[in-house]
Amino acid sequence: VTLAKGERFATGAAVPPANVDSDRATQPSLSGGPTPAGSRASTADGGPLSAGAAAPRGVPAAVRHPWLAPVVATLLPGSGHAVARRPGAALGIFAAAAGLTFASVALALATDDSEGATLGGPGRSSAREALRLGTFVVTTDALALLWLGQAADSWVKAKAKTVRPRRRHVIGVSLHRASTVGLRPGEPSMARYEDLSLGVLGQVMDRLSIGLADVSVHGRSNGRVTLQAGLRAAGRVVERNRVWLVVAGGVIFQGTSARPSLASQDPDEPAARERGRFGAIGYGQLETRVFVLDRLSLDMGPRLSVPFATRYYGGGKALPRWAPTFELIAGAQVYF
Length: 336
Description:
Blueprint: E1 8-10, E2 13-15, E3 26-28, E4 34-36, H1 68-75, H2 79-83, H3 87-109, H4 126-159, E5 171-183, E6 190-205, E7 208-219, E8 225-240, E9 243-256, E10 259-260, E11 273-274, E12 277-293, E13 296-307, E14 311-312, E15 318-319, E16 325-335
């Protein structure tokens, strides 16, 4: 590379001296031709470095095929970071995913299917069962978020780019799981209640979004179906680089279909029909959103809800009216 008089060489690029007009100064490009002095191997707005290019000191270079990293990371956690030349992160992610998988399987198999089958037999401690179910919820949520997050982050590392959250988005589409542990009839006396739902919120003004949320369908063993949807308002109260803190509140509405009950023993009497039901649940929640891509965040946080009528979940489970419920929210959101 030939340098003009007065230029100095640093990190593979020629830097003009202070007395040279920066608008007219040129630097040699990576291909050997002159480029404007403001050009760099990596863009200032977080754009990717070209594959094989010499990166500035402290900035990792992009790999030749960055799309390969998230593909292999989806199949095996940590392998995407290995493709992106991050062996330390790859080993740590693989160890964390393996540990969470083992813990989730062990907790799922720790239940006793024969409990409650023997009349008068001692049941499992309610506190012990609640701890097992609560730990299972935490480990499975953490595993799902880790799996998705490491796949997205491997693409970011392979592209050598910077994540910049999409603050001025129009619509956010979310998929969340709300889980809690509560009492149930019979043995075991504790059960896990889950609600997997969709949400579509529009940003009506800076930091404030309003829209449809908690959309889901719950089937019951007796053939009845519960449709669920609600309204939610969410406001960002803290923004720190890739982390947002969001306060949200809303109302969930549930409608349960009617069904004929068992036929009467008297053939002349018509079968009694069980009426449909309608209910509402009010709630407030605090979300932490961590952006792993410009338009993708991982969401987690607590929710406190109170049902104004019986609240139905999948699998025929239900919680009574006025029962305060502490739920754990975990999921992902895409911004458009």
